[in-house]
C-alpha cells in the first residue's frame, strides 16, 4: 500500500478535501493510525519527527516498523511514510532509508539558503521517486524541539520555493504547533488565498490540533490538502490512559500487563483519527 504523496495530495487539492498527516511515536501509535485509515478506507500519511525517529531507533527502523505492521494488519489503503520537519541532514537520511516522502524544513535558515537546500533535497528525492514538502514563513510554537516564531509566509517566497518543484508546501498562516492560546487570532485567510492563487501545489496546514472545524474546512476549500495532526492524538492518548488508571480499571494498580495498560490510549488515537478524517472530507479509496 506504500506510495509517495505527490498524486494523492494533488488529487486532494483538486477535489477540495484533505488527507491526514499523523505523527507516530511507537508501535501502538503506528497501529492505531493504520487501523483508523483501514476502517475508514482512506489514504493516510504517517510521519515521524526527527525526535520520534531518534526515540524509535532511526529512520530505517521506523520505515521497517510501519511497513511490517501494515503487512501484518493486511492494510490495503495507500500509506505514505513521511519525515516531518526534517533538517537538511535528516532529510538526506530519510531519503537514504527509503521514506516515501520528506519534509525539508528550512524556516530557520536565511531565505537563499532555504531555497538552495530545498532545491538540493528535491533533486535527491525526486531521483528516487520520493515526494518533498518545504516550508516558508514559520509555524508558531514548538514541536519536538523545532521552534518557530509564527512568521507569516510571504507570497513571493512561497512562489519561489514552489518553483523548485516541491510536491507540497507548508506556509506559516498564523498556525501554531501544540495547543492554541485563548487569545489566538485565527488563521490568516487573506494570506492563504494569496498563496493559493500563486502556488499550484497542494498546501499543508501544520498545527492542525485545536483549530476550530469551520476554519479547517474553509482552509481546505482554499487549497489546504494535507492536515498535520500530532498534539490532538497525544492528548487523547494521555487522557484515556489516565482515566483507565484513575478509574482503577488496572485492578487498582495490580494490573501491570503493558498491553492492557496501552490499549485504551491506543483506541483513543484510532477514534481521534476517525473523527478528524470524517470532518476534513477525506475521500475513500475505491
Ligand atoms: O508537524 C506536525 C504538525 O504540525 C502537528 O501540529 O501538534 O499542533 O497538531 P499539532
Ligand atoms: Zn508541523
Automatic annotation (TrEMBL):
Residues annotated as catalytic: 84 (proton donor)
CDD domains: TBP_aldolase_IIB (cd00947)
Database matches in InterPro entries: Aldolase_TIM, Class_II_FBP_aldolase, FBA_II, Fruc_bis_ald_class-2
Domain of life, source organism: Bacteria
Binding site for dihydroxyacetone phosphate: 178, 207-209, 228-231
Annotated binding of Zn(2+) 1, by residue: 85, 177, 206
Cofactor: how and how many bound: Binds 2 Zn(2+) ions per subunit. One is catalytic and the other provides a structural contribution.
Name under which the protein is recorded: Fructose tagatose bisphosphate aldolase
Species for this entry: Lacticaseibacillus thailandensis DSM 22698 = JCM 13996
Lineage summary: Bacteria, Bacillati, Bacillota, Bacilli, Lactobacillales
